[in-house]
């Protein structure tokens, strides 16, 4: 009964705040503004921009039977011509926020050598205000990883910097997404 009285009192307060609903008053509706897009930039041929230690936030990877969370760390130590190179390490976790290391000895940190070859520059597209609210340019890169004792894997991706070069992100296909891992210098 008390709940019903509060609801009626709330509805009355709402109606009085709206002015009673007379026809003589005009109302304007404003659309909510979209958030400002994140501006991304390519390296513009400066592969030395990739040099440094870059750590990702917590991401997700599919295992053969379970979903694990991961953190990746790139340690790029060399840049020569169109190629930056170094190592990448992936640590796997058994919880959803990358706090509890994966317990199985069969999943130690994965390490590999990595090279990032800049093939060109691409426009990231027009922001839509949804999951791809990005503008600017990105490097089209050939990423080659070679785990110790294994053969190399090469993929074509896109990489772009933001935050005045304090972070970067990879994506397999444009446009970039808010779901892509962001790498920052710790």
TrEMBL record:
<keyword id="KW-0732">Signal</keyword>
<feature type="region of interest" description="Disordered">
    <location>
        <begin position="21"/>
        <end position="41"/>
    </location>
</feature>
<feature type="compositionally biased region" description="Low complexity">
    <location>
        <begin position="24"/>
        <end position="41"/>
    </location>
</feature>
<protein>
    <recommendedName>
        <fullName>Lipoprotein</fullName>
    </recommendedName>
</protein>
<feature type="signal peptide">
    <location>
        <begin position="1"/>
        <end position="21"/>
    </location>
</feature>
């Amino acid at each position: 009964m008390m709940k019903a009285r509060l609801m009626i009192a709330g509805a009355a307060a709402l109606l009085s705040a709206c002015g009673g609903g007379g026809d003589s008053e005009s109302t304007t509706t404003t659309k909510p503004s979209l958030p400002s897009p994140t501006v991304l930039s390519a390296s513009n041929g400066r592969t030395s921009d990739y040099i440094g230690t870059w750590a990702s936030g917590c991401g997700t990877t599919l295992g053969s039977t379970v979903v694990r969370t991961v953190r990746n760390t790139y340690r790029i130590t060399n840049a020569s011509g169109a190629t930056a190179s170094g190592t990448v390490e992936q640590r796997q976790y058994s919880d959803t926020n990358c706090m509890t290391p994966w317990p199985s000895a069969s999943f130690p940190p994965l390490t590999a050598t990595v090279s990032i070859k800049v093939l060109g520059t691409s426009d990231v597209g027009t922001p839509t205000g949804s999951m791809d609210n990005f503008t600017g340019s990105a490097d089209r890169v050939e990423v080659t990883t070679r785990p110790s004792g294994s053969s190399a894997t090469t993929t074509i991706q896109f990489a772009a910097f933001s935050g005045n070069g304090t972070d970067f992100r990879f994506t397999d296909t444009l446009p970039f997404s808010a779901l892509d891992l962001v790498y920052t210098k710790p």
